[in-house]
Amino acid sequence: MSVEQTIRDQISANNILLYMKGSPDQPQCGFSAQAVQCLMGCGKRFAYVDILANPEIRATLPGIANWPTFPQLWIDGELIGGCDIITDLYQKGELQTLIDQASTQEQA
């Protein structure tokens, strides 16, 4: 399976997916840590992929996403954005709405 197909499978298999540096327990950069804080603040489970442990994904994903940096948050198969966008949506309460809608669809 190609790296691109692996990424597409990960995105379609997880309603809420964060591509990040490190893990939620041990983020390896400040931007990933901040993104995790916002997601945890929404109180729903989310999947993650550590791009530091997966250099092929780290190299390939920006081309698929048309987004050069990490972290990247994907909800329901759509790229939401990076740290600044995640933080902004969280502060406005809009991230909670997106997360709740994704979580509801998961149970349906």
How is the topology of this model organized?
Elements: H1 3-13, E1 16-20, H2 30-41, E2 47-50, H3 55-65, E3 72-75, E4 78-81, H4 83-92, H5 94-107
Parallel strand pairs: 1-2
Antiparallel strand pairs: 1-3, 3-4
Characterization of the model:
It is a single chain. The chain is of the alpha+beta class. The chain has one domain: Glutaredoxin (3-Layer(aba) Sandwich). It is about 55% helix and about 15% strand. A four-stranded mixed β-sheet has the order 2-1-3-4. Helix 2 links the parallel strand 1 and strand 2. The radius of gyration is 13 Å and the shape is globular. The model has no long low-confidence stretch (mean pLDDT about 95).
Share of residues in helices:
40-55%
Look at the structure and name the CATH superfamily. Answer: Glutaredoxin
Total beta strands: 4
The number of helices is: 5
The helix-strand sequence is HEHEHEEHH
Shape: globular
Share in β-strands: 15-25%
CATH topology annotation: Glutaredoxin
CATH architectural name? 3-Layer(aba) Sandwich
Could you tell me the radius of gyration in angstroms? 13 Å
Mean pLDDT score: 95
Largest sheet: 4 strands, mixed
The secondary structure category is: alpha+beta
CATH class: Alpha Beta
Uncertain residue segments = none
With strands numbered from the N-terminus, the spatial order across the biggest sheet is 2-1-3-4
Number of domains: 1
* Terminal residue distance: 29 Å
Binding site for [2Fe-2S] cluster: 29
GO molecular function: 2 iron, 2 sulfur cluster binding; disulfide oxidoreductase activity; metal ion binding
Subcellular location: Cytoplasm
Domain Glutaredoxin: 16-80
